[in-house]
Write a structure and sequence with these properties.
- α1 packs across α3, α4 runs antiparallel to α8 and α12 crosses α15.
- A hairpin with a 2-residue loop joins β1 and β2.
- A two-stranded antiparallel ribbon has the order 1-2.
- The chain is an all-alpha fold and 336 residues long.
Length: 336
Amino acid sequence: MSAEVVPFPQKKPSLEPMLSLTANGMNAVNQVILDRMQSEIPLIPRLAGHLISGGGKRLRPMLTLAGAALVGYEGTRHHKLAAAVEFIHTATLLHDDVVDGSELRRGKAAANIIFGNPATVLVGDFLFSRAFELMTEDGSLKVLKILSHASAVIAEGEVSQLTAQRQIETSEERYLHIIGAKTAALFAAASQISAVVAECGEEQERALEDYGRNLGVAFQLVDDAIDYDSDAAQMGKDQGDDFREGKMTLPVILAYARGSEDERKFWKAAIMGHRSSDADLAHAQELMARHNAVEDTRERARHFAQRAIDAISIFPDSKARAAMAEAAMFAVARGY
């Protein structure tokens, strides 16, 4: 197969083509999710449902469905696997909110605030277990290897991010490694497994993995930019959470690297937790604007989104390919 470079169109991108492409499949996936989050312990479906029904984009399981459409797979194995992907993602969110002490998730009170940290962690564990049940039911050792490896990489990425927290000298290279693990690994696995269940060749499988991985990096870059240029109503979380938690994201890394001596002193104090007021956040945003840190972060995201689009250019032009390309553009253009 020969590849072609697919340029960004000029119109404002939307997730609608992806939603339309995967609508029927997502109904089946959502039914699996609903069935498998049930338990005789009432707290488990209550807590899991609080997040699962909380208005997330469900982008990761959609990638599995879209990838299957792209390669012409007409079976149903990918429905359970897409549900497993969503359970892995939800479990990591529950654990993340406990680690970060988050108060908002998708515009609502985070589960840990309502149900407490111990219950939130344990229900996260329950969802991980359900994910692995779904994987083993599928019966493919290759699928199990891909998703279990992704789960381990995600955990490593979260630990790496924790150790980088409040470390002002964190490099851009390390930052990209962290988000490649904690975010992009599941995007890559979700996309790749669609080629595996369809018994595609290695080139197609690798193309879908590359698409997901680059999309995941772009998605996280935009998330990190959004923390400094969107309000809480758009984001569904408190603006400046990353700032107050001392997270070394790319906007901070760029602003610090480009700053004057006085600006660097401010960033050191802020990342150490000594400058965390609303006024300090506003000053941080001013410094980022001065050095184009947020816009350059978004520009890097556009680069990775284009790499994602180029990765699937080996496939013939189709409704599925167009929807996946537009989803990558939407991930970059979004404000929430």
